[in-house]
Design goal:
- Keywords: Cell outer membrane, Ion transport, Membrane, Porin, Signal, Transmembrane, Transmembrane beta strand, Transport.
- InterPro entries: Gram-neg_bact_OMP, Gram_neg_porin_domain, Porin_dom_sf.
- Pfam families: Porin_4 (PF13609).
- GO terms for molecular function: porin activity.
- The protein has 360 residues and is mainly β.
- It has one domain: Porin, CATH 2.40.160.10.
- 10% of the residues lie in helices and 54% in strands.
- The chain has four helices and 18 strands.
- Strands 1-3-4-6-7-8-9-10-11-12-13-14-15-16-17-18 form a 16-stranded antiparallel barrel.
- A hairpin with a 4-residue loop joins strand 16 and strand 17.
- The longest helix is centred in the first third of the chain and has 17 residues.
- The protein is globular, with a radius of gyration of 21 Å.
- It starts with a helix and ends with a strand.
- The N terminus is likely disordered.
Length: 360
């Protein structure tokens, strides 16, 4: 039987405790080499949304250009180039106050890890953003937008995510991996690398792992990245059959690059996804191109993504977005975006809206 104290622990009370702890830590000069920060993004938009082959609906959404989240993180300097670091971050939906980016998302769904930074690299343990997701966000104009980014919509809005339309395109494993250990190299002449392994906490060996490696290069205005990931499960070991019958595993690889000019920045990504299904394998090729152009103090954002599924449902998908982002200050911006989403054999989908985003 739960005690009275256990009954009153809620996500809201956890948030109050976190704010109190951060306030006390910041206000106490007990250890000048330690720091803790409270931070996040609140983003909401209003407009119309129509999934392919469905009807138009008006709605207010909780994340137009960015999924809203809050978090607190910090570091402790151990001297000699060694530091303890941690981050605890959770998505939330400002339109209704619910925690998580969707029903069933854990409270600290974005990141929840602790680690050690050393001169030889950084090791972190816990729930962590996937390397493929982070690279896909970095090399497209709409970054991590699940509402308006053609890259993110095509990669992560599929394989059962939206039952409104039938598709077998998409990346399994989600945007963050639980039970994960990650190593990040120091940067050397613009080169850096990451490797991550996630345990499935299951006794079935072949169905209880995810792993990924990623490399980045930066030189002036040019940046490039390459990433590979393998996944035997989506959120829990053995759950891929809930997406497609006989689904065994998925591997995905991506090459990406960007170049920044004086008033414009160009982006490009190529993603290859191979799905291992009993008695039939199929793959998906996706190409994305985009740009941002400075107009006054604001920016025009444009992106187009094309996917082709071979051996599965043999679908083609074309998604294009055009928007304008206007900063009100260093922390707050207003935006308006239109996105068209077309599956072969279905009526077109579309999303259009205006929104406001504030960082803290």
């Amino acid at each position: 039987m739960l005690t009275e104290r256990a009954r009153i622990i809620t996500p809201k009370s956890i948030f109050r405790i976190a704010v109190t702890v951060v306030s006390i830590t910041i206000g106490t000069p007990a250890h000048a080499q330690s720091s803790v920060q409270l931070y996040g993004i609140v983003d909401t938009w209003v407009g119309i949304q129509k999934y392919p082959s469905k009807s138009v609906s008006w709605q207010e959404g909780g994340g137009g250009l960015s999924t809203s989240f809050w978090g607190f993180g910090g570091k402790e300097d151990l001297s000699g180039g060694y530091k303890v670091i941690f981050a605890i971050e959770g998505f939330f939906r400002p339109q209704n106050g619910a925690y998580g980016s969707f029903n069933g998302d854990p409270l600290f769904s974005r990141n929840a890890y602790v680690g050690l930074s050393t001169p030889a690299g950084t090791i972190t343990l816990g729930r962590q953003s996937s390397l493929l997701y982070l690279q896909a966000c970095q090399f497209n104009p709409f970054y991590a937008s699940f509402t308006f980014s053609p890259t993110i919509v095509q990669m992560y809005a599929g394989l059962g995510t939206y039952p409104a339309y039938k598709t077998d395109q998409g990346i399994v494993g989600g945007t963050a991996w639980s039970n994960a250990i990650q190593y990040a190299t120091p940067e050397l002449h613009g080169l850096s690398g990451h490797a991550m392994y996630a345990f499935g906490d299951s006794s079935t060996g072949n169905g209880s792992k995810q792993y990924s490696v990623q490399a980045s290069y930066r030189n002036g205005n040019f940046a490039a990245g390459a990433v590979y990931q393998y996944a035997n499960f989506n959120s829990t070991a053995g759950d891929l059959n809930a997406l497609l019958k006989g689904f065994h595993s998925q591997s995905a690889a991506q090459l990406a690059a960007s170049y920044e000019f004086s008033i414009a920045k160009l982006y490009g990504e190529y993603t290859y996804t191979n799905n291992n299904v009993i008695n039939r394998n199929f793959h998906v090729n996706m190409l994305e191109a985009g740009l941002t152009v400075a107009v006054g103090i604001g920016r025009i954002l444009a992106s187009y993504a094309y996917s082709r599924d071979s051996g599965g449902l043999n679908q083609t998908r074309q998604t294009a977005s055009l928007g304008y982002d206007y900063p009100l200050s260093k922390r707050t911006d207003l935006y308006t975006v239109y996105m068209s989403d077309r599956f072969a054999g279905m009526s077109s989908g579309e999303t259009a809206g205006v929104g406001i985003r504030s960082r803290f």
